[in-house]
């Protein structure tokens, strides 16, 4: 009797009835994909979230544009168990271009297949003080003078000039055309 039970159990397992069939499995499908551009300050940090459904549950990893898997970089980048890529706040002198100004992609994979998210251009910006420069220019009284606000290249795309302050502390707004 025991032999017959073991024999029927062996037939049940070898026929594949003990495991879910291939038709019950599904390849990964993204539920949440990160934005294509993510900019953040070194004082705030950021997180890239990626979620995928599938049967069996997909494993989430992150890779660089070149296709290499990302590794944790102590204090600068790590992946949580839920697949979120985390960039914690970092000191100015800890900035690394290969971590803070590069392209990442989320990879979701299970036994059925794998998918790759859109490219995510990540850019960490260092929060720091800067001084805009206005250079003296010679203008004959009654003529038009054009003054330019010179900004450091690392802030140009993040700063817009909305007013000027004269020596007498009078504020000229960009919408002000009186003076």
From TrEMBL:
Disordered, as annotated region? 19-45
Q: Alphabetically, which GO biological process terms does the record hold?
A: axon guidance; dendrite self-avoidance; homophilic cell adhesion via plasma membrane adhesion molecules
The region annotated as signal peptide is 1-18
Return the InterPro entries for the record.
Answer: Ig-like_dom (IPR007110), Ig-like_dom_sf (IPR036179), Ig-like_fold (IPR013783)
Extract one GO cellular component term from the record. Answer: axon
What are the Polar residues biased-composition ranges? Answer: 33-45
Q: SUPFAM superfamilies annotated for this entry?
A: Immunoglobulin
Q: Which residues form the Ig-like domain?
A: 28-121
Sorted alphabetically, the keyword list is: Immunoglobulin domain, Signal
For this chain, one GO molecular function annotation is: cell-cell adhesion mediator activity
Q: What is this protein called?
A: Ig-like domain-containing protein
Q: Which organism is it from?
A: Larinioides sclopetarius
């Amino acid at each position: 009797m025991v032999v017959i039970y073991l024999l029927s159990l062996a037939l049940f397992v070898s026929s594949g009835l003990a495991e879910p069939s291939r038709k019950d499995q599904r390849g990964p499908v993204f539920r949440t994909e990160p934005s294509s551009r993510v900019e953040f300050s070194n004082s705030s940090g950021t997180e890239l979230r990626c979620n995928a459904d599938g049967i069996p549950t997909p494993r989430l990893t992150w890779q660089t544009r070149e296709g290499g898997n990302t590794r944790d970089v102590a204090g600068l980048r790590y992946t949580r168990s839920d697949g979120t890529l985390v960039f914690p706040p970092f000191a100015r002198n800890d900035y690394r271009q290969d971590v803070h100004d590069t392209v990442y992609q989320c990879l979701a994979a299970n036994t059925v297949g794998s998918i790759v998210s859109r490219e995510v251009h990540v850019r960490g910006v260092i929060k720091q003080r800067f001084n805009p420069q206005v250079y003296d220019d010679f203008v004959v009284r009654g003529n038009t003078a054009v003054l330019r606000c010179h900004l450091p290249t690392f802030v140009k795309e993040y700063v817009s000039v909305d007013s000027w302050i004269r020596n007498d502390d009078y504020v000229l707004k960009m919408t002000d055309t009186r003076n």
